[in-house]
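JOB MANIFEST
job_type = single_chain_structure
chain_count = 1
residues = 318
[input]
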Amino acid sequence: MKAISYARYGGPEVLELGEVDDPRLGPDSVLVKVRAAAVNPVDWKCREGHLDPVLQAVFPVVPGWDVSGVVVRPGPAVPEFAAGDEVIGYVREDFLSRGTFAEYVAAPVRALARKPRNLSFEEAAGLPLAGLTAYQALYGVLEVERGETVLVHAAAGGVGSLAVQLATHVGARVIGTASEPHHDFVRGLGGEPVTYGEGLAERVRGLAPEGVDAVFDTVGGDALKASANLLAPGGRLASIVDTEVVLHGGRYHFVRPDPQDLRRLSELAEQGVVSVHVSRTFPLERAADAHRMSQEGRTRGKIVVTVDGEPEGGPGGA
């Protein structure tokens, strides 16, 4: 099958379109015809080798952990899905090998949920990793409740934009950092935008003089340090990018595959609680351009790679 892969760490230029071995369908896996796969910062961080100390790479590596597509064939121990079902998935292995930037992926059933019927394949592809990250951090780690004030960093980004929607859904007040051009977008999500950078602490205190109840950090570094000083008594801090959050009394969170959480996200999307903004799509052969755009770090919402073609019998014509 055709896929994007890289045989060594490096820049976007190491990504190549070519033929790779067909995926093997395990007893509790599902063969999915990929229609779209979202680009996430972790994809290019893996490609450049930044996660090599914690994730072993088995080259050639097919990048991509997000997927939306159509079931071609479920494994013999999978009654949950049938051929033709539209699904989404957070398909992360414990090492780098077979990702979703390909025509097909064999996904563990625990990584999948039914695709929200009201989302396109492109929109749905942007939901699993970013949505699970926000959902688990806000509801599980920070335990955000009605009436609380939450500071969300990079509120116009893929994870941040979903976090704003999920926090407002439970009745929290959301202050979101974003650049000036993205302020209206953040307002449309239900947040109160503040410009990031120098003077951020003063601007946040102007909106929340008594401090914020929770901070969801997606940036790290100086933003994380400033955030620790903005917490109200008893406030909570969580970061998805900076492990030094523990030095400030917070928790580091790395998103986990969870079928129940993913099903709940799909339901919230169908109910109109959360939406996915796709800033741009690229065909599979232009995955390198998609990675370059992601590395610029100023994307509103999600970047998505699309894979053409209707589902057929699958690899090998089965």
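[summary]
The chain is about 25% helix and 30% strand.
The first strand starts at residue 2 and ends at 5.
exit_status = 0
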